[in-house]
Write a structure and sequence with these properties.
By secondary structure, the protein is α+β, with helices and mostly antiparallel strands. The chain has helices at about 1-15, 30-45, 65-75, 140-145, 155-175, 185-195, 210-215, 220-240, 305-325, 335-340, 345, 350-360, 365-375, 380-390, 405-420; strands spanning about 20, 50, 55-60, 95, 115, 180-185, 205-210, 245, 250, 260-265, 275-285, 290-295, 300-305. The chain has 15 helices and 13 strands. Helix 9 (about 305-325) packs across helix 13 (about 365-375).
């Protein structure tokens, strides 16, 4: 079906001078999902420009020209009145008010169009989230709609898991404890809160920082208190999201400073490459740097671990596990991707502060050099491409609005190590 859809779209592209407005229903012999994937394929090739959810323009068709022509054909009525301006990144963007909700048009070359509901409120974009019942699992219709909001998503199961992770983040934001303060860290914080990198995230890294009263307890009493806090968090997530079933696959370290909880869910679009489960890793260690507040997915202000401290943890993961367990943990390449992506934010630091924050425990000049030497092996290119195929939301090229290729990532990663003083000057 996908091949047939590609051929159908290709034949339209080959018609000289054709400026068609395509929708999946117009290619009647192919299923809608196959046609939409075919259209996305041509978008990535540069032959076709996507200008909206299920709306495509051939060649140089402009957003401004497309909207008034195509929306009535799709069953929407444009309400009378002046178009409100101010939503575009450059001049030329506008907002059209429709008689019922519609997804935001995706920007094209800096110009975007936004639709409003009849009451004048902009329709929620991907960044703002979508309307949902947080206690219910995503419906098939919601999964399909979410799948099509991304430039690239390797399967509906990945879109389903992303929706579930978002629900879990909203539930996490609502957790309250009299004995600990919650903040989120790891890749999820970089993606969803700091917005310093772009990819799917399938686990939640939680920091539950105990208060002074817990710190003053003896070793055994403190361990027991931390376990109680962790179990309260585990029960809270299950109460908020009953469709997430706790399992016994997690672990609790003896001193309870690390507690891992794994929840399973029943996928409506199963895929062997997507684990139908969510892992919450709860850590009870003191902060190195003050937390940063961001707007939470649930609407309230929410604390996140500072990106520099997150970067320090990623260096720790690489220097601790990569050289000796490289073949066992191919997805460690995500830390390389994230550190290369947030390089612009990290190099603004004072070099001395950076060294003090990053060079600790097993992260030494020698261990960083060993990581870079290990990443030079050709197999890591394969690991990176495999990971981004599954977890990326954009094509992998060195063009703008794409995930960079492996050579660029490794070059930025190595440059970051030098700029932060993590490599000795004479390191080759």
């Amino acid at each position: 079906a996908y091949q047939a859809a590609c051929e159908a779209v290709g034949s339209l592209l080959r018609e000289d001078g054709r400026k068609a407005i395509l929708r999946s229903e117009l290619v009647s012999h192919a299923p809608a999902h196959a046609c939409d994937r075919a259209l996305r394929h041509y978008c990535e090739s540069g032959e076709l420009t996507r200008v909206g959810h299920g709306i495509y323009g051939i060649g140089t068709a402009k957003v401004f020209d497309i909207v008034p022509e195509v929306m009535p054909k799709l069953g929407y009525r444009i309400l009378p009145g002046e178009r409100a301006r101010g939503y575009s990144q450059k001049s030329g963007g506008a907002v059209w008010r429709l008689d019922r909700p519609c997804r935001r048009l995706i920007r094209k070359r800096g110009v975007q169009a936004m639709f409003e509901t009849p009451d004048g409120r902009p329709v929620a974009s991907r960044q703002q989230g979508v309307a949902m019942n947080p206690q219910e699992p995503p419906t098939r219709r919601e999964i399909e709609a979410h799948f099509h909001t991304f430039e690239r998503c390797h399967s509906p199961a990945r879109a389903e898991k992303d929706l579930i992770v978002r629900r879990a983040m909203v539930a996490m934001e609502r957790f309250r404890s009299e004995r600990a303060t919650l903040a989120i860290e790891g890749g999820t914080a970089l993606v969803a809160y700091h917005r310093l990198t772009t990819r799917f995230s399938e686990d939640l890294d939680i920091r539950l920082i105990p208060d002074e009263a817990v710190h003053r307890l003896g070793t055994e009493e403190r361990s027991a208190a931390l376990k109680e806090i962790g179990q309260a968090f585990k029960a809270h997530v299950h109460a908020e999201l009953p469709f997430l079933q706790p399992t016994r696959k997690g672990r609790i370290r003896r001193d309870a400073l690390l507690q891992t909880f794994i929840y399973n869910y029943r996928s409506v679009v199963p895929d062997e490459e997507v684990v139908a489960g969510v892992k919450c890793e709860v850590v009870h260690i003191p902060l190195m740097m003050p937390t940063v507040e961001h707007a939470g997915l649930g609407g309230e202000r929410f604390k996140t671990i500072h990106p520099v401290e997150i970067a320090s943890g990623k260096w720790q993961a690489l220097t601790t596990r990569l050289p000796r367990n490289a073949d066992s943990y191919p997805d460690l390449v995500r830390h390389v991707h994230d550190l290369a992506a947030i390089r612009p934010a990290l190099i603004l630091l004072d070099p001395e502060t950076a060294r003090e924050t990053m060079l600790r425990d097993e992260t030494t000049h020698e261990s960083v050099a060993a990581v870079i030497k290990e990443l030079a092996r050709p197999v890591w290119r394969d690991h990176y491409e495999s990971y981004m195929r599954r977890m990326g939301v954009l094509p992998v090229t060195d063009w703008p609005n794409s995930h960079p290729g492996w050579d660029t990532v490794l070059a930025n990663f190595t440059a970051l190590a030098r700029e932060l003083g993590l490599l000795l000057a004479d390191t080759a």
